[in-house]
Structures are given as C-alpha cells and as structure tokens.
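Hi W.,

Here's what went into the run:
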Amino acid sequence: MKPAFIQHCLSIKNLSREQILQLLDQAQHLISPTGELIPPPALLTGKTVANLFLENSTRTRCSFEMAAQRLGAHVLNFDVNTSSTRKGETMFDTIDYLTAMGTDLFVIRHAEDEAPHQIAAHLGKRASVINAGDGCNEHPTQAMLDAFTIRHYKGDFSRLKVAIVGDVSHSRVARSNLYALTALGVPDIRLVGPAALLSVESQPAHVSLHHDLISGIEDADVVMALRLQRERMQQASIPNAEEYFQEFGLTAEKLKHAKSDAIIMHPGPMNRGVEIASDIADGPQSVIFAQAKFGVAVRMAIMVMLLGR
Ligand code: CP
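Here's what came out:
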C-alpha cells in the first residue's frame, strides 16, 4: 500500500480509508494499551522542523513542537511578530532562507486558504510541508486526531452516528472531518446549527443538515462542538452568545437525547457557556483533553511518515 503522504500533508480530501487507517495504526504504536503516550524512538534525530504559525494557535503549535521534540528533531518556532516579514520580506523568501539553513519540514498555519499548498508547490522536494490549518479550508491533522479519538472510544466507524454542531460554514475542522469520516465509512453524519452557519459544498446521502439541536444529536454516538468563528464572519449572521447557547449550546439536559455513552468532542479553543457548558466540557463523557493527547501521537506518526525511516 502507498503511504498516506509522500512529500507533504496538505489535505485529507483525497486520502483513502486504507491510507487514513494506516496513519492511525502508526500513531497507535505511540499509545500504550491504557491510552497514554509512550516515549517514541528518536526517529527524527538530525532533522529540523520549523513551526510557521501566521495565525494564532495554542494546541496545534504546541502539539507539533512536543511531537517533534519527542522524536529528537530540532524545532524552530518562527515568530511572525519579530520576524523580517514585518520589514516586507515575502513568505517565499522566508521559506527559502529557512530551507537554506537546513529546515526539513515546515508546519504552516495561515489565514488564507491553500497558502500551505502554494508553499509546498514552491518547495517541491526541497522540504516537506504540513498544513496546520489554512483559512476556512482544511485542518487535516485535527481530523486525523479526531478520527483516532473516535476509534479509541468507539472502535468501529461503520455504525456510528456523528453530530457536528456549530459554525460548520467557517470551520476547516468540520470540512476535514467530513472528508475523513466519509472515507472511513461513517454512515450517518449530521451537521447541526443555524442556517447561516451550515453552508456545505455538497450533501451526499450520509450527511444531513439540522437546524434543531435535539433532532441533530438524537441517538448520536459522537457529538462534536465547534467554536463560533467570529473572526471569519462577514456580518452578524447569528444570534448573540446567550441566544446561541440557549439554542445550540451543549448542556446536560440536551445531551440526554444523544446516546447515554456518547462521547463529547471539541477541537478547541472552547468558548465555555457559548457552544458548550462547563460541566459538559469537564464531565465524564468529554474526551476533549484526550483529543489533545492523541494529537501528539498522530502528529508524530505524520512527521515520521514524511521524514522518518
Ligand atoms: N484545534 C486547534 O486548531 O486549536 P489551535 O487553534 O489552538 O491550534
């Protein structure tokens, strides 16, 4: 079987079920039977990973940094605010200088759709690129860690009902999850939220739209909350935070309509009291912090697939 990625990890859209499972299986080697991270072999000794985050991040940037360090790589954290980007240097020039200095892999977050794709095309085979989130387009490593988390708790994808609740329109996480869960054979995916936040490119038979939270999460095995991405909204197209929480916020009362063993997910950052109640975020069904833990393993597996032996 061909590995999931050869040179770059930019999108999950065109990956097959087998390729995604191969990646998840590689990450599984980095998790103990009790679900803890285990120390990996230093497979990236001598490699240099540059984190270029041109948009804010906590989880993804720290997760990549921890993953690269665990594998023995040198990690370079590029700070755009103190860089020569502020003096007019182009992104491609910055990339070329860092490549000349020996960078093997760029982890790139960018506010513009497909900016990592452009950088990958510019680099060719000189270095690898991982898309750490581009605009409203994709967040492939988040979808991989979400799939890993779902498999960890639910085992099999083929019978699952998954509800993705919130600002689907602006969410690269939702888009990448739709691609991944579709490839993995999830038969019932519900997109739940106000009409203004539920625009989708296409709607295959296994994907349904719900403007009512209760019908959207009815009997669900997985409920994934999304943040309202106000920074990407062109106009005030949704109710205020209090009204949104009343209608679409995940609360204990509303979650009685999902399966009693449903897992609750959120990619972070969470807005407690807007899309999710605090007691749900911290409650027994929440796997939100496990997602972050599994993310380190998944990102190690992706980096090894691109650079390792
Ligand atoms: N999930 C996620 O992408 O979080 P950050 O924006 O903090 O990286």
